[in-house]
Design a protein that fits this description.
Helix content of chain A: under 10%
Shape of chain A: globular
Number of strands of chain A: 12
Radius of gyration of chain A: 14 Å
Oligomer: heterodimer
Order of helices and strands of chain B: EEEEEEEEEEE
Largest interface: A-B, 25 and 29 residues
Strand content of chain A: over 45%
Number of helices of chain B: 0
Distance between the termini of chain A: 41 Å
Chain lengths: 114, 114
């Protein structure tokens, strides 16, 4: 079984400041890792994913994440945020075998202040 | 390329009633997964359908059931509705034949049980 912990439920930052959203996971098997974003009253949009290879993954809208196997972490970063980045961000994992069941964290609400 | 669509957008039911939610997969996808997202929580996996067969189920009671049709669209049925069933129901489609492929989410159906 897998579990995901997003260490911050809310992160307020000023516009153009850098941000890091933290994600740790637990799994007895190898996993793929994902970050999704959810804008108000909308579904989930994929930001980026780690399947294999380079541990630094670049996604849409200037976001990137780094997979750290020894620390079982997959933190999301952006060097300079915009007002439009205000949203809920979800980290998710799934086993590389079996059904494509995603296990999500509780989410981090990113609020950008002008 | 047509994305994942869901209907209806919103739904209000009373306790004890039954509800059917619908999902149309993204073009070329053969797998549909359903998730329940309670307010302020991350999505929880309900079940997945692949080639019209259930292919994995989360910790949900049997009154949650589903169907997948030959065109890969899907339905989620919930019987004997309870107040705690109030949530955003998300459908996601993917290509099962490529295990590393990504799940793409629809906008969701907001179900309110009174």
């Amino acid at each position: 079984a897998q579990s995901v912990t997003q260490l911050d439920s809310q992160v307020p930052v000023f516009e153009e400041a850098p941000v890091e959203l933290r994600c740790n996971y637990s799994s007895s098997v190898s996993v793929y890792l994902f970050w999704y974003v959810q804008y108000p009253n909308q579904g989930l949009q994929l930001l980026l994913k780690y399947l294999s290879g380079s541990t630094l993954v670049k996604g849409i809208n200037g976001f990137e994440a780094e997979f750290n196997k020894s620390q079982t972490s997959f933190h999301l970063r952006k060097p300079s945020v915009h007002i439009s980045d205000t949203a809920e961000y979800f980290c998710a994992v799934r086993s590389i075998q079996g059904a494509q069941k995603l296990v999500f964290g509780q989410g981090t609400r990113l609020t950008i202040n002008p | 390329e047509t994305g994942v669509t869901q209907s209806p957008t919103h739904l209000i039911k009373t306790r004890g009633q039954q509800v059917t939610l619908r999902c149309s997969s993204q073009s070329g996808h053969n797998t549909v997964s359903w998730y329940q997202q309670a307010l302020g929580q991350g999505p929880q996996f309900i079940f997945q359908y692949y080639r019209e067969e259930e292919n994995g189920r989360g910790n949900f009671p049997p009154r949650f059931s589903g169907l997948q049709f030959p065109n890969y669209s899907s339905e989620l049925n919930v019987n004997a509705l309870e107040l705690d069933d109030s949530a955003l129901y998300l459908c996601a489609s993917s290509k099962r034949d490529f295990n590393t492929d990504t799940q793409y989410f629809g906008p969701g159906t907001r179900l309110t049980v009174l």
